[in-house]
Amino acid sequence: MRLYVSMTAAPRSHETVLAALPAHRREVFEARLERWWPDLLEGLAEVYDDADAVADRVVALAARAYAERDDDLHALDLRRTLAPDWFQRPETVGYAAYVDRFAGTLRGVADRAAYLRDLGVTYLHLLPLLEPRDGDNDGGYAVKDYRAVRPDLGTMDDLRDLTRTLRAQGISVCLDLVLNHVAAEHEWAVRARAGDPTYRAYFLVHPDRTVPDAYEATLPEVFPDFAPGSFTWDDDLDGWVWTTFNRWQWDVSWANPDVFCEYADIVLNLANHGVEAIRLDAIAFIWKRLGTSCQNQPEVHALTQALRTVTRIACPATVFKAEAIVGPRDLVQYLGTGRHHGKVSDLAYHNGLMVQGWSMLASGDVRLASHALQQLDPVPASTAWVTYARCHDDIGWAIDDGDAAAVGVDGFAHRSFLADFYSGEFPGSWARGLVFQHNPATGDRRISGSLASLAGLECGDPHAVDRILLLHALVLGWGGLPVLWMGDEVGLLNDAHWAEDPAHADDNRWVHRPVLPWPVVDEHDLLRAVRRLVRARGRTPHLHASTGTEVLDPHDTGVLLTLRQHPLGPMVGAYNVTATERWVWGDRLRAVGLDPHHSVDRVSGVTPALAGPGDVRLAPYQAVWLTAP
Ligand code: GLC
Q1: For the chain, what is the largest distance between any 2 Cα atoms, rounded to a whole number of angstroms?
Q2: β-pairing, 94-97 with 434-439?
């Protein structure tokens, strides 16, 4: 690893690009460049020998994008830099949806804005919509053209119109940036196959199996079932190309600065179309190192820091969201630890919380979750976890063996139990999931299934709705940016017809990606309850993400206890993960500075039910957020 020591001054070559701009615009750019240049250079120097030259190219790209940026987006940059905590606020609530499955087309999404507003949504993650390869494309994660929208969904102009329309209604748009790989049909890959050495160097190609075999000795399998191995032979390349995911998703080489510049320019283009959050898809995989799992390498964070600086200079309204579905010990780095503190992604998926949520429900026991969540380091105060109960992917049982052992549980056995439970095989299970990517070598069995089907609604379990609401209360009450998954708010069950599309038939993640049926959603009890929870969150300032969540040692194995020491006073979250009545001891509340007799439950908006010396009663699966009134 190289560390940059002598900080040179920022280059001047961008001045020509900016020459035609009014003086105040030039001044703003210069001020930002001065502020972020050291971070840009530091990030690049950890990866590239010629960091100065790369930084120079990047600044020129940033200057061009800045010069082309619309006035309304410059105004947004100003507003966001005045309120950089916009995504940390309790009023910020996310929703994730496929454009076609939610509203048909990009234009259709604008027509559904009222539904989102009623739900309290202020941040909309639209799942991949840039032009993918034809046929199977991993749900859009095999992109053929980053500068075009999937034709049946609309055009880049429609995207720009949509972001503008939604922004006017207080909704920010998040889009995926697939930056570990491109579709084999992407122009870079086409040119590489045609023999262009510049583009061949965009990929990781090896003439024979020597190097691939050496890497594969320590590489985990992502899709062992339908895409075993991490390299694919290509006749035109006359070599093995790195394909972590499917054989038609070619990993790009981030060791090549041309690749960095390409992606910097793609980010700038999306930002200039009004995209406010960029989801860094599969970011953990972008740096490869022999003898490792080729995930979470230090260079990933250096590259993110450099890329993030580009947006801070040209379009600071744009934030980054890391999608790193990795083990608990590797997660916090994506929000910036050590020298990258506060310099990488602003948001990151809290995979650990999601997994522990399901683990607690299956076992009716919070000890493992409490211990595991206690092990996570605090995150920088300027960042936030993306909290979610379910997403478009499978659930991988990221339970650390050490965490399990610390509470007397065998990690492997617990992961097997969770796979049995959520596939419905465990006696008495109320879940109806499907096993995804059974790996006989490791025994891993990930799980697909909609939140409602996994929570018991499909098999008519009487507590299914309570569980759905408990998980929503947990993600809304954690103090991050909660993202609700399309259909979960109305309890959509598994899609019985998921395999009918031949392009989906191999991939049972489509079982939990159903079409949202309109207009049934409007009159739904569950929807009303979710709306109430979202409103309750908005009225709870203690949930601002700049304050961290501490997990308390449980006094009841069925109740997860969280504490947020906010300047306004403490907030205790209590989550009963069992089907029986439980209590939160008054003494525990007093010990953290909360008098139960003078407290309010922000979830229900009323004084909690008390008994004895101020013990708070929890009904089966009830969640409370207790604060001073
Ligand atoms: C991310 C996506 C997932 C996709 C993978 C490869 O994890 O969420 O759906 O399969 O990246 O792009």
Answers
A1: 79
A2: unpaired
- pTM for the full predicted model: 0.97
The two three-digit tokens of residue 554, written as one number = 């449980």
DSSP code per residue over 322-357: E-----HHHHGGGG--GGGTTTS-SEEE-HHHHHHH
Q: What is the CA(164)–ligand 1 centre distance, in A?
A: 27
Average pLDDT over every residue of 17-40 = 96
Distance CA 186, CA 163 (A): 26
Token couple for 94: 């996310």
Integer Cα distance of 481 and 185 in angstroms = 35
Residue nearest to atom 10 of ligand 1 (CA): 138
Is the CATH number 3.30.450.40 carried by domain 187-251? no
**Ligand 1: which residue has its CA nearest to atom 7?**
282
Gap from CA of 178 to ligand 1 centroid (Å): 8
- pLDDT at residue 520 tops 80: no
Is the pLDDT confidence value at 318 over 70? yes
To which H or E segment does residue 125 belong?
A: strand 123-126
Asked if 388 and 485 touch (Cβ cutoff 8 Å), the reply is yes
Q: What average pLDDT does range 397-401 have in this prediction?
A: 95
What are the sequence ranges of the domains in the chain?
A: 187-251, 550-627
Structure tokens at 228: 């075993």
How much is the pLDDT for 7? 53
User: What fold is seen in the domain 550-627?
Assistant: Immunoglobulin-like (2.60.40)
What integer pLDDT is reported at residue 522 of this predicted model? 61
What is the whole-number distance in angstroms between the Cα of residue 251 and the centre of ligand 1?
Answer: 13
pLDDT averaged over every residue in the chain = 96
Best residue for ligand 1 mutational test, from 130, 141, 178, 513 (most atoms within 8 Å of Cβ): 141
